[in-house]
Design a protein that fits this description.
alpha+beta, eight-stranded mixed sheet, 1217 residues
Length: 1217
């Protein structure tokens, strides 16, 4: 789908035609020779750097080639001597002498081997140091080492030969070769394959006084591998495609030239005809460019020579460029590095051509593909026809070289310098179309034959700008088209070469780029600097677009090195193609991705990669390149390397297009596009929820029920504009937190305003979505008598949304047996199953029937409600409550204090007692006036107040109350309630000794002293102090132990952290989720098998053991880092829990004058606090990324607790230190 066009020309006058050309790619110098003169050119400055004439006038130079390793020019002198010309010293160094003469010499692509064919028919291979590698006959009689053999039933020997007999099977596989063409120059030609492993030699063989052209394939080592099959009219031009799959040559068959292709085994592999007739012309050269995608065919005649450039798409060869020169011969070579640059010498001039490959479009979507004398057009906005086919063809009299469009009209500039105008190309009918108007260049204007008119830009229907060489210098021409002629209105000579010129279709701005990279804006025939930035640093573009970011124009260009620039800023390193959409800039890359850059963002943001969101990048097929993007939709056409087309709808373009349709209230098109492209339908609501809900009746008028059914089915509480489509933004806030109910209720209300029958399925979908199926069934029942068929169809649709059993149960839950029967008839249930059940229900009264239905459906609470409304069924109520454990529900129904309440309450209390909920059982027994049972439950709980209160209500004797208090105290003491247990011993049991013992056991020494003093028991104080001394010593030892452990952990974790830093981690997955739809169940990452099967197979004991290993402090263990942090956290927790007890202990020791024990505890506490506070930042450094072990499992993370409550400073006040 791409066309070739001339981007720029560089001309150097040489005074005579150079017979041979060679390029020094390191310095971009061009060497040429004629007779005994060597010329060195610089096409960048358009100057001759060196013109050296050898002293001997008789010397004839040929077959030149620049050798980078020698920094010298290889030449063949007088057909016999191989020499090196050193341009620095201007000396000619003789390297070898071929006495038989040199017919042809060709170096390999890596300059490592030189093939020399001598006049005596010898093939000599020489190294880069001119050492002979092999010397053999160039015309061996054998086919080669890779002789073709037929096997199987398709072989010649196994076929029936009729009257020819069995001897026919012994005949040679190949027929007798045919004589050479009359136009053959009888020269020997050599061509290398791109990798330098094979080369082909085309020679003239003589048999029985007849001459034949034969092509032979050779290896780099000089072994003959194969010979071509005989081809009539074979000519001397030969070229091996650098990619290696084909060898091109030409034939003259019936006065018609053809390019034919051969494989390495010599078999013919396709052909295509050439345009020019063979009279008085011959094809001197066929040669491939470096990337193997352009084939140049050189015609030479008596008066004119031609360069024809062909490309292939979908196995069809198309003529893209045709240049004609008034000369009988021409020298042509491709540039080795730039695939679209070639060098020629013709008519006493050296000319360098730079081509560019780009897509030509009219009205942004109609593609125009040049194919010799016709241009194939296809409106891609309505169809996608792959090349070489097309919708219509624009016919011209000569080869079209370039295309310019203005609106829907197209102007074709042909090789004979005529301009053809075609009107309304975008709406042209199918078939061939002739020009509406033709114009010829003004004959008085001087244009040489080598001048190429380029960058034709139509400003109006009759005015245009272009660039052409005038006296071998670029000039900017203003053209006027009228009266079938093109008049040159103005001609402005430029100091630099123009490489790009294009017009922005919206504003009409024309941007011109010069060879230096500078950008200018064309105003009134004059060039003015572009933009406010210094464009002298801009790169030279081979493809250029003008994008508008928030009303700011930005030049977007791609260089020949696939660098993408926005103005002067480098944006991408591997861009392969660009296309400008109305809302986005599209970019493809060598990483096989398509990037969509929104034009709605500021230019300074777009110039950075921050302007691209993740959803704006999607994967493509390898080698895909952009063709067109439809500005009025989301269609983007891509071309694969072979030539076939692919139509895609990138998500950013599609969603932007959907948003525009929503803003224009075209909901019919929105629903169609969303369904077609599998976009999440929530976007229709989330983008503009207020408009959707407020104008829902108008929206329904555009749609059918099927669209709304899909919409309701996919409706979710997720706001897609905040999640998967967050880059789109919203017009307003979401409808409410309960999105599904709000939308479904709005749809139900809107449906009620129109005829409900066509929207029954939508109505059913809403009821099912909000889980209110019974309401939907009742709605259908009301319509059944007037619309029975539609109602039955709605029931069948409901069966699709829910299964048979669920729908039957929903119908049963309405307590309407007629509706149940209507639904059951459309299910797959056996009537024998449900008719007996329905008949049984029919026998009961209405209230009890509802109870039986709800009991059957498992609605136990509502069933209990109906059962309790039935008179004389209290016993059944009790059984039902016990069976389903519905005691709280039943108690709410009966009044407090009634017999029914007490009966249900006692049942509930017994159930709680059995389940060891003694506190709740005791309270409930008390409500039912069962005080003894209540006391039996409460005596085993911590609720001592309740138990003693119930005991008082029972008027228990003092000894029984004392025993009850003692039992409660023992329970509290066992469960850690020392203060409450001591209160019971002291107040109810009159046992201060036991009370003091309990308080000392709990570390409550202040309370113990209080009890001793209140009872005037001085003897208890000594016991308290003895216990306090022992406790202080234990506390001191425990604090010392914790300090030593903290120091050990702090030093050990440093070693562990250093070991962890040596482990390299980091794994990344590429997300191709854009290849899937937004509604599919396929996720971005897939795998086979189960990743947790090994772990799930462990027993509970094994899992517990594995969990405990995480807290093991064993050195070198897998989780040692985590275990150290958790152990240190335990130390901090211990100090926090002991803070109040230590403070109380120190107070009492100081009060009793025990300074030394108090000082020891305070000192130990100070030390451990200091160690812990210093080590916290060592144990928990600043946050880092998760660490992954060797098995790919993320290590657990330990977080630091809050700081220690008590500090050493707070304790110093008690010691007087």
């Amino acid at each position: 789908m791409r066309n070739l066009s001339c981007q720029w020309q560089k001309v150097v006058k040489t005074g005579t035609q150079l017979d041979y050309l060679s390029i020094d790619q390191d310095s971009n110098y061009v060497y040429g020779c004629f007779n005994n003169i060597i010329v060195k050119l610089d096409y960048n400055t358009q100057q001759i750097l060196l013109e050296h004439k050898l002293p001997d006038e008789e010397i004839q130079l040929s077959d030149i080639h620049w050798l980078p390793s020698h920094r010298a020019l290889f030449v063949v002198v007088n057909v016999t001597t191989l020499a090196l010309f050193h341009p620095d010293s201007l000396t000619l160094e003789e390297m070898a002498v071929i006495e038989d003469g040199v017919s042809c010499a060709e170096w390999s692509p890596d300059d490592g081997v030189c093939v020399v064919v001598t006049g005596a028919g010898k093939l000599i291979l020489m190294s880069e140091e001119f050492d002979p590698i092999k010397d053999t006959d160039v015309r061996p009689q054998e086919f080669g080492s890779e002789h073709q053999t037929q096997v199987g039933w398709g072989s010649k020997e196994t076929q029936f030969h009729g009257s020819a007999g069995k001897g026919a099977s012994q005949q040679p596989v190949f027929a007798t070769p045919t004589p050479i063409a009359t136009t053959d120059s009888q020269e020997t030609r050599v061509s290398w394959r791109g990798d330098g492993q094979y080369f082909v030699v085309s020679t003239i063989d003589q048999r029985d006084s007849e001459f034949y052209r034969v092509v032979r394939m050779w290896t780099r080592e000089g072994f003959h591998t194969s010979t071509n099959e005989p081809v009539p009219g074979l000519e001397e031009s030969i070229s091996w495609r650098p990619s290696g799959n084909l060898i091109s040559t030409t034939v003259n068959h019936n006065n018609q030239h053809q390019v034919i292709f051969m494989e390495r085994n010599g078999l013919r592999h396709g052909e295509f005809p050439l345009t020019l007739r063979a009279e008085n012309t011959c094809v001197s050269t066929t040669t491939w460019n470096s990337s193997s995608n352009v084939l140049a065919v050189i015609y030479e005649g008596q008066e004119q020579c031609h360069i024809m450039l062909y490309t292939c798409s979908n196995y069809c060869w198309q003529l893209k460029q045709h240049y004609t020169y008034n000369s009988s011969n021409i020298t042509f070579i491709w540039d080795h590095e730039d695939e679209h640059k070639f060098h020629i010498s013709v008519d006493s001039r050296y000319i360098c051509y730079q081509l560019t490959s780009k897509v030509s479009t009219c009205s942004s979507t109609t593609t125009m593909v040049i194919d010799d004398k016709k241009v194939n057009t296809t409106p891609m906005s309505t169809m996608c026809i792959p090349p070489p086919m097309s919708y219509s063809q624009l016919i011209t009299d000569s080869t079209c070289n370039s295309i310019s469009c203005h609106g829907d009209d197209a102007w074709l500039l042909c090789s004979d310098r005529t301009i053809h105008r075609f009107n309304d190309v975008s709406h042209a009918p199918p078939g061939e179309i002739t020009p509406d108007e033709s114009y010829t260049i003004e004959r008085e204007f001087p244009l040489d034959s080598h001048t190429c008119i380029r960058h034709l830009v139509m400003v109006t229907q009759s005015k245009a700008h272009c660039v052409a060489l005038v006296n071998d210098v670029d000039a900017l021409l203003t053209l006027e088209l009228s009266d079938k002629e093109v008049f040159v209105v103005s001609c402005t000579t430029l100091e630099d070469t123009v490489v790009n010129m294009m017009r922005h279709p919206g504003s009409g701005t024309i941007v011109v780029q010069l060879y230096s990279g500078e950008l200018f804006e064309l105003h009134g025939g004059m060039l003015e600097p572009w933009g406010s930035v210094d464009m002298r640093e801009c790169a030279r573009f081979c493809e250029m677009e003008i994008a508008v970011f928030e009303e700011e124009m930005v030049v977007v260009g791609r260089t020949s090195f696939n660098h993408l620039y926005m103005d002067t800023r480098l944006w991408n390193y591997d861009c392969t193609s660009i296309s400008l959409h109305k809302t986005h800039l599209l970019v493809t890359s060598h990483s096989h991705t398509l990037t969509c850059v929104s034009l709605s963002q500021p230019a300074h943001v777009a110039r950075t990669t921050e302007g691209v969101v993740d959803t704006g990048i999607r994967s493509l097929e390898r080698g895909s390149r952009l063709v067109v993007s439809d500005p009025d939709s989301s269609r983007v056409v891509l071309q694969m390397p072979r030539g076939n087309l692919e139509l895609i709808h990138p998500r950013p373009l599609l969603l932007t297009h959907l948003a525009q349709l929503i803003d224009n209230f075209q909901y019919r098109k929105v629903f169609e596009s969303v369904r077609k492209h599998r976009v999440n339908m929530n976007f229709i609501l989330d983008y503009h929820p207020e408009q959707f809900l407020s104008k829902l009746p108008d929206i329904l008028s555009q749609l059918t029920s099927q669209f709304m059914e899909l919409f309701i089915a996919e409706l979710s509480s997720e706001d897609t504009t905040l999640t998967m489509y967050s880059f789109m933004g919203t017009q307003s806030t979401a409808p409410s937190t309960d999105k599904i109910n709000t939308v479904c209720k709005a749809v139900l209300a809107a449906v009620q305003t129109v005829d409900v029958v066509p929207w029954l399925n939508t109505l059913i979908s809403c009821y099912v979505k909000i889980d209110n199926v019974p309401a939907g069934l009742l709605k259908l029942k009301t319509l059944y008598h007037t619309h029975p068929s539609e109602t039955e169809a709605a029931i069948k649709y409901m069966l699709i949304l829910t299964d048979d059993e669920a729908l039957f149960n929903h119908a049963l839950g309405t307590h309407d047996l007629d509706l149940v029967l209507l639904v059951a008839q459309h299910t797959q249930k056996d009537p024998k199953e449900y008719m007996l059940f329905l008949n049984e229900l029919q026998e009961h009264d209405e209230v009890y029937r509802k109870f039986k239905i709800d009991e059957h459906l498992g609605r136990n609470k509502t069933a209990l409600h109906f059962l309790m409304c039935c008179e004389g069924r209290f016993e059944e109520v009790c059984n039902f409550v016990t069976k389903h454990n519905l005691h709280p529900t039943a108690l709410q129904h009966y009044q407090f204090g009634t017999d029914q309440y007490k009966t249900i309450g006692r049942m509930f209390a017994l159930s709680l007692k059995e389940n060891r909920h003694l506190e709740e059982a005791g309270v409930l027994f008390g409500q039912c006036a069962e005080l003894k049972e209540s006391l039996e439950c409460l005596r085993f709980t911590k609720q001592s107040h309740l138990a003693l209160s119930v005991g008082a209500q029972l008027n228990l004797p003092a000894d029984q109350m004392s025993g009850l208090a003692e039992q409660l105290a023992e329970n509290l003491r066992r469960d850690g309630g020392h203060r409450e247990a001591a209160r019971l011993y002291d107040r109810y049991c009159d046992n201060p000794d036991e009370a003091v013992e309990v308080l000392c056991e709990g570390g409550l020494y202040s309370d113990a002293l209080e009890v001793s003093h209140s009872r005037h028991r001085v003897d208890l104080i000594s016991n308290i102090m003895s216990s306090l001394k022992v406790e202080s010593e234990q506390t001191f030892n425990l604090l010392e132990e914790k300090r030593q452990l903290a120091e050990k952990l702090a030093s050990r974790i440093v070693v562990v952290r250093e070991r962890r830093s040596l482990v390299g981690t980091g794994f990344e997955d590429m997300d191709h989720s854009d290849l899937y739809s937004d509604t599919t169940s396929i996720t971005a990452t897939s795998h086979t098998g189960s990743t947790s099967s090994r772990r799930s197979a462990k027993s509970a004991k094994g899992r517990k053991k594995a969990e405990m290993k995480k807290y093991s402090l064993k050195e070198g263990s897998k989780y040692e880092y985590f275990a150290i942090q958790e152990a240190f956290k335990g130390i901090m927790t211990f100090i926090n829990l002991r803070a109040d007890m230590i403070k109380d202990m120190v107070n009492i020791l100081l009060l009793q004058g025990l300074l030394e024990p108090a000082r020891k505890v305070v000192t130990a506490h100070q030390q451990v606090v200091e160690v812990v506070n210093k080590s916290v930042n060592v144990i928990w450094p600043p946050p880092q990324s998760d660490v992954v072990d060797q098995e790919g499992e993320v290590e657990p993370i330990s977080y630091p607790p809050e700081k220690i409550k008590i500090s050493a400073v707070e304790l110093q006040q008690f010691t007087g230190c």
